[in-house]
Amino acid sequence: MLDVIDGVTYLHSLGIVHRDLVMRNILDSNPLVICDLQSHHATSHCHPVEIDDGDYSKFSFASDVFALGALLWECCFYNNPLNRAVLLDNPPPPPFRDIFIACTQERAEDHPTITQLRAMYDTIRLSNH
Asked: What is an example of a GO molecular function annotated in this UniProt entry (predicted)?
């Protein structure tokens, strides 16, 4: 996941919003590679509610962070994170749950920045060593 966060950090440093950060757009290599940079749409379960009206001009760095939260959930649990009908017997561990909740806040201005998201991951990594 850190490879993807670092890739998105690089895209954002160039002023690029990906708009469709989903599992199928992450190539399994070392390091992981983000693809499909020309996408003009987003997978519905991986974008924030402000995009639901189809106005893709609303995509922002914050919407990419939202998608990263959804991607984290999908990586950990292999299911659509925003399908409220799916109930898990075992909730995600607190550090990951906290990241998911932070990234998927309803208001874009409440999402962490990509730099803050990287720091959240670094904290988890450091606490496990």
From this structure: ATP binding
